[in-house]
Amino acid sequence: MVQSQIMFEDRVKKLKEQIAKENLDAVLVSSVSNIEYLTGYSNFSIMEREAYIFIGKNFGYIITDGRYSEAIRTQVSHLKLFERGHTKKTADLFKKHKREIKNLGVEEDELTVSEHKELKKHFKNIKHFDAGSLRSIKTQEEINTIKKACEIGDLAFNFILKKIQSGITEKEIAQELENFIKEKGAIISFPSIVAFGKNSSVPHHQTGDKRLTINDKLILLDFGVKINGYCSDMTRTIFFGQVTLKHKKMCDIVLEAQKKAIQFINSGKNIKAKDVDKVAREYIKSKGFPDIPHSLGHGIGLEVHEHPSLSPKSKDILKEGMVFSIEPGIYIPDFGGVRIEDLFVLEKGVLRQITNSSKELFSV
């Protein structure tokens, strides 16, 4: 994806506007995805603390070490590089700006206890700041990239249907998916979930060594593609061999719950995400099946799960340019589960589906 320096400068500008709106003097951004969003640099590890962004009213730093300094100087010109090392510590930068910062915003979910303790040495008032909310509304370029990931996902689904046969394991299906996606120049956006039979009753089943038999009846596939930093996510439940009326009823109800959520979103403006969740959730319960044990959907972009959240406690309002999943499910222990998940973008007041694999109830 071609990204201009002006775009990243504009994102930092919006971050500063959000800082002012929340009566903060500065924020410390520690999420790798948010750092990538604000800089375009995507080589920091999520396993280690290799960088921060430190932004105030009159300053803007990217903090990292000598391993990355040359790349940052070349690729990130809109933020000042602070290279920490043996002689310079991040704390030195905090001390420098301590007097001008009364209220500091931090990403609470992205800091360790020790990091928080260190910050408390320098700043008295530390508040949670949700930098990820800036990513909830996508540009057309971002939407196009997510669409490309979805297109590869659709191809992968059609490919994997031909590989399903008695005796194959869940792990082998997952590996076939990953290999196909890599051949298309992308990577998986998360470890694929492949669940046979009763395993499908676990929403986030850990793909294992179970072999497919004619008695399993259901196959749940939940996988995603990542290309140029942006993710897709899709779930399909398919039949293997002869299924019972109960299996078919579950599929019909889940698909209808998704349709009702879509219709509700298309029915008006300023739709509350929690109300969309309620529509699908209540429909499934009205048919005598258990409550959905997860949220109805989530935003997607640089990460598989981001704003907005379509959940009972969500405070999000669905807005133009948001890309998110709608994924109702029914799960019955020791019997099986059904989930159908698609990605949608809200454009010109209408919800448009961007995962296009068939949802017809068919057997392989």
UniProtKB/TrEMBL annotation:
Residues 11-132 form the Creatinase N-terminal domain. Residues 145-346 form the Peptidase M24 domain. Keywords: Aminopeptidase, Hydrolase, Metal-binding, Protease. GO terms for molecular function: aminopeptidase activity; metal ion binding; metalloexopeptidase activity. InterPro entries: Creatin/AminoP/Spt16_N (IPR029149), Creatinase/aminopeptidase-like (IPR036005), Creatinase_N (IPR000587), Pept_M24 (IPR000994), Pept_M24_MAP (IPR001714), Peptidase_M24B (IPR050659), Peptidase_M24B_aminopep-P_CS (IPR001131). This is Xaa-Pro aminopeptidase. It comes from Candidatus Daviesbacteria bacterium GW2011_GWF2_38_6.
